[in-house]
Specification:
The chain is of the alpha/beta class. It has one domain: Metallo-dependent phosphatases (Purple Acid Phosphatase, chain A, domain 2, 4-Layer Sandwich), CATH 3.60.21. It contains five helices and 15 strands. The radius of gyration is 18 Å and the shape is globular. About 16% of the residues have low confidence.
Length: 353
C-alpha cells in the first residue's frame, strides 16, 4: 500500500523510529503454540501455568451514543485495542502495510469499544492523511473509537491533524479530549477507562507536578468503579527497540497507588505481556498492574531488542489486535492475529480487591 505514497520530510524528534522488518508475516497455517525463539526474537514465554483457556466472547454488543460513557447490556463488555496502524504519506515502500487486515479483525470481533493506542496515521498524522488513509481503513469504527496520540501524530504541530479528525476541524474538545491535553477518561460498563498522553515533551512534562498528573490523581480519586484500565501510546516497560520509558514513572506511581488493574500501550511494533508490576518494575501480584504492548496494528513489525525483567510474552510474528472481555470484577484477554503465525495467547485476571 505504501509504494505510491509521496515522501514526507520529518521534523526533529527525540524519539527515534524503530527498525521495522521488511518481510510481511506469513499467512497463518495451522493453529499452535510457538515455544521457541527465532532469529528475530519472535517469542518468549514464562509462567505458562497461569494461563487460562478462557474463550473470549466475540458476539455483537450495543454501544452507547455518548463519547464519555458506553452503555452495555449485561455484566460484561468487549473491547479491541491496537496501535501503530495506518501507513501514509512517506511510508517506505519496503514496509508491509496490513492495516486493512487489522480492520477486518475488528469488524469480525464487533467490540463495544476500540481503544486506539497511538501512531494511528503515519508518517506525520496530517488531516489529509487521516482523511485519505485512516478513514478508509478504520473510519467505520469512529463512533466506538477512543484514541490517544502517538509521537507520529505530533509530527504535525500540536497533533492538529489528529484532533481535527477525531474532534472536528478547529473544535477544542471531543472524542480525543481537549487540544493541548489529549488525556481524558470515561466509563465502559462497570469499568473506568483512562486515556493518557505519553508525549511528555509536547505537553510540557509527565512528572508528578505536571498538569496531567494532577488531573490523573483527581480523576482516580473520584473513580468509584472496582476495575480500572489505562492506555497510552508509549509503554512504561518494553522489550522492544524503544525500551522502557522513565518519563512515565510518576504517572505509573499514581495509577499503582490508586489501584489501576490493566495498562495498554503501543509504540514498539510487537506484542508483549508483563507480570503484574509496580511503577519501579517489581512484581506485585496483589496490587501490581498487568501491562500489554499491542503495537501490531498494521504498519510492520520490529525486532525484540532486549527481553525485560518480568516480561511473560514477547511476540513479533503477527499483525493483530488484543481483545478483552471486561466484567464486573474480572477480565479476560486474547491476542487475535490478522496476518502471521498464530499465537495461543489468552488468559484471565481478577480486579484488585
Amino acid at each position: 500500500m505504501s509504494s505510491n505514497r509521496p515522501a514526507v520530510i520529518m521534523p526533529d524528534s527525540s524519539v527515534q523510529p524503530p527498525t521495522l522488518l521488511s518481510q510481511s508475516p506469513a499467512a497463518p497455517a495451522v493453529p499452535g503454540f510457538l515455544a521457541s525463539r527465532g532469529s528475530h526474537g519472535r517469542l518468549a514465554l514464562a509462567g505458562l501455568g497461569i494461563l487460562a483457556t478462557v474463550t473470549v466472547a466475540l458476539g455483537a454488543a450495543r454501544v452507547g451514543a455518548l463519547p464519555n460513557s458506553v452503555g452495555i447490556q449485561g455484566d460484561s463488555v468487549v473491547i479491541a485495542a491496537a496501535g501503530d496502524l495506518v501507513c501514509g504519506t512517506g511510508t517506505p515502500a519496503n514496509i508491509p502495510c496490513q492495516e486493512l487486515a487489522t480492520a477486518d479483525v475488528v469488524r469480525k470481533l464487533k467490540p463495544n469499544a476500540l481503544l486506539l493506542l497511538g501512531d494511528l496515521q503515519y508518517e506525520a498524522g496530517s488531516l489529509a492523511d487521516f482523511q485519505s488513509y485512516y478513514e478508509a481503513a478504520f473510519g467505520e469504527f469512529k463512533s466506538i473509537s477512543y484514541p490517544v496520540p502517538g509521537n507520529h501524530e505530533y509530527f504535525t504541530p500540536g497533533a492538529a491533524g489528529y484532533f481535527d479528525y477525531f474532534n472536528g476541524v478547529g473544535v477544542d474538545s471531543g472524542r480525543a479530549g481537549h487540544r493541548g491535553r489529549g488525556y481524558y477518561s470515561f466509563n465502559l460498563g462497570a469499568w473506568h477507562i483512562v486515556a493518557l498522553n505519553s508525549n511528555c515533551i509536547e505537553i510540557r512534562n509527565c512528572n508528578g507536578r505536571s498538569a496531567q498528573a494532577a488531573w490523573l490523581r483527581a480523576d482516580l480519586a473520584s473513580n468509584k468503579a472496582k476495575c480500572t484500565l489505562a492506555f497510552s501510546h508509549s509503554p512504561r516497560f518494553s522489550s522492544g527497540q524503544h525500551g522502557n520509558d522513565e518519563l512515565l514513572r510518576d504517572l505509573w506511581q499514581i495509577m499503582y497507588d490508586a489501584g489501576v488493574d490493566v495498562v495498554l500501550s503501543g509504540h514498539d511494533h510487537h506484542y508483549e505481556r508483563f507480570f503484574r508490576q509496580d511503577a519501579g518494575g517489581r512484581i506485585d501480584e496483589k496490587r501490581g498492574m498487568r501491562a500489554f504492548i499491542v503495537g501490531t496494528g498494521g504498519k510492520g513489525l520490529a525486532r525484540i531488542a532486549r527481553p525485560r525483567t518480568n516480561s511473560e510474552v514477547q511476540y513479533n510474528s503477527a499483525i493483530g489486535v488484543l481483545t478483552m472481555v471486561l466484567k464486573a470484577d474480572s477480565y479476560s484477554w486474547q491476542f487475535v492475529e490478522s496476518i502471521g503465525d498464530p499465537l495461543d495467547e489468552k488468559g484471565e485476571g481478577k480486579c484488585h480487591d
